[in-house]
Amino acid sequence: MRLRRGVPCAVLAACLTGCGGVDGGVHVEGPAMTTIPWTGPVYITDWYGRAWQRPEEIDPTMRLSLSRLTWRDWGSSRARATGVATDDTCVSGCPDGNENPPSYRVDVVLSDPVRRGDVSFYSHASLTPVHPPAPFWARYANDTDLVVPDA
Fold first, then answer.
1. Cα gap 29→130, rounded to integer Å
2. pLDDT of residue 28
3. Are 40 and 54 in contact (CB under 8 A)?
4. 72 half-sphere exposure, CB direction, 13 A CA radius
5. The whole model's pTM is what?
6. Are strands 51-52 and 78-87 parallel, antiparallel or unpaired?
7. Per the CB 3.0–4.6 Å rule, which of 5, 36, 97, 134 could disulfide with 138?
């Protein structure tokens, strides 16, 4: 028995129009869904790529370390802390040798969290001297992008 070419097309057309096809379009009821704010853990990565939450000390860049950090608002869009910034590379000459590199008190603001999977990472740090002005060796560390893991 030989089938005609038009038979499969007719069966397909009948199925699309009568076999579970949408009758009259989609009907939507109720208000649209609202965005649910995401509230997962937030981290900062150090110069070596390790992730930390509320670190007491951290090396955010190769030249600078932060210590004695006291955090406020961790996990929000802007985490704030007070602590001490230290010249790890002795750009200032380290008058006492490497035993006591120069440091100064700072206010730290981490911002611009970037989501990666189920967590976020702060991507920007700003340092402001508690007692201005900042030392000359810190002028390029006052506003810096932080390392964020790849997606």
1. 56
2. 72
3. no
4. 7
5. 0.70
6. unpaired
7. 134
Q: In the chain, which residue ranges form alpha helices assigned H by DSSP?
A: 6-18
As to burial, measured by CB atoms within 10 angstroms (0-12 exposed, 13-18 middle, 19+ buried), residue 49 is exposed
Joined tokens for residue 145? 């992008």
Rounded distance, CA 63 to CA 47, Å?
A: 9
- The span from the CA of 115 to the CA of 112, in Å, is 10
Q: Per-residue pLDDT tens for 19-62? A: 555 566 777 777 766 555 667 899 999 999 899 999 999 998 88
Q: Of 75, 67, 74, which Cα lies nearest the Cα of 127?
A: 67
Question: Pick from 96, 76, 73: which is nearest to 86 by CA?
Answer: 96
Average pLDDT of adjacent 10-residue blocks, the chain of 151 residues: 55 55 68 65 92 94 91 94 89 68 91 92 94 80 86 70
